[in-house]
């Protein structure tokens, strides 16, 4: 939430302008936009609030609502009732008898979450009891930001009352320091398969991809390295499908070997663990300005190890070019 702008209104009262951000899944965003944008156009016109939806091919989108407090609450009411309508429509083809609650997720600067929770959880407990809505403040910040998700669930009327109370708390306790806003990442993340495990590449790290474990186990049993899901033949015909171990050698300048090894060997151990390859670094030879790295494993293991080593070089080079981004590695 951005700092409020307070203006004197004609009646002598206060007209407070707020900006509130919501985090929505693609299906929810589609519901808000409607056919040819008719639903969101109607919401803008009837509430008087500005409603903007972030661009991008992302599984999550940010919906930003800006306007005077009364316009904000009208927009929230329209969104909550639209989601309830979607739930009722989905239940018409479902055997379920109990109606699930409407759920909205606010994106709130972490510096304001303490006031939202209150001493010993007193404030959030009071909001739950007085509105009948369920309110949860995420313990961790959203990736690459200083914001947290605040999830509100319940009937539309309860959600609207809860949002009003949250706005009051946040107006009384403005954000402290600079806020780094959460920006959802695009959905397309490269996946690499190695040693019966899928990895998504995020920066310099290969992060295990849990959703694919069962399928990957089957692929590992077939011994088909780098086989994309749904295929039974190797993606790269030149690779030996028998997974026979081979060896690849790299030559690295002495003054760069430290960034590959890391403090107390942490980086090279990460690369070994993620790639599944054996990696040996030769001792420094007298009079030589280079060190030899020997990588042993399946073609898939070797390819992933090479990728991670190159990614480590790119990361260090970026830090050298931008000293302000350097952290202890």
The overall pLDDT, averaged over residues, is 77
Molecular shape = elongated
Count of separate DSSP helical elements: 10
Question: Considering DSSP H and I runs of 4 or more, what fraction of the residues is helical?
Answer: 25-40%
Using only C-alpha atoms, the radius of gyration works out to: 26 Å
Strand content: 25-35%
Uncertain residue ranges: 3-14, 211-242, 321-329
Quaternary form: single chain
Task: Please state the structural category.
Answer: alpha+beta
SSE run = EEHHEEHEHHEEHEEEHEHHEEH
Main sheet record: 7 strands, antiparallel
In total, how many beta strands?
13
Rounded to the nearest angstrom, the distance between the terminal CA atoms is 34 Å
What would you say this structure looks like, in words?
This protein is an alpha+beta fold. Helices cover 39% and strands 25% of the residues. The chain has ten helices and 13 strands. The strands form three sheets. Strands 1, 2, 3, 4, 5, 6 and 7 form a seven-stranded antiparallel beta sheet that branches. A three-stranded antiparallel beta sheet has the order 8-9-10. A three-stranded antiparallel beta sheet has the order 11-13-12. Helix 5 (122-131) packs antiparallel against helix 6. Residues 3-14, 211-242 and 321-329 have low confidence and may be disordered.
Task: Show the helix and strand layout.
Layout: E1 5-8, E2 14-25, H1 26-33, H2 38-47, E3 50-53, E4 60-68, H3 69-91, E5 102-109, H4 110-117, H5 122-131, E6 134-137, E7 147-154, H6 156-172, E8 191-194, E9 197-202, E10 205-208, H7 213-222, E11 246-253, H8 254-261, H9 266-275, E12 278-281, E13 290-297, H10 299-321
Antiparallel strand pairs: 1-2, 2-4, 2-5, 3-4, 5-7, 6-7, 8-9, 9-10, 11-13, 12-13
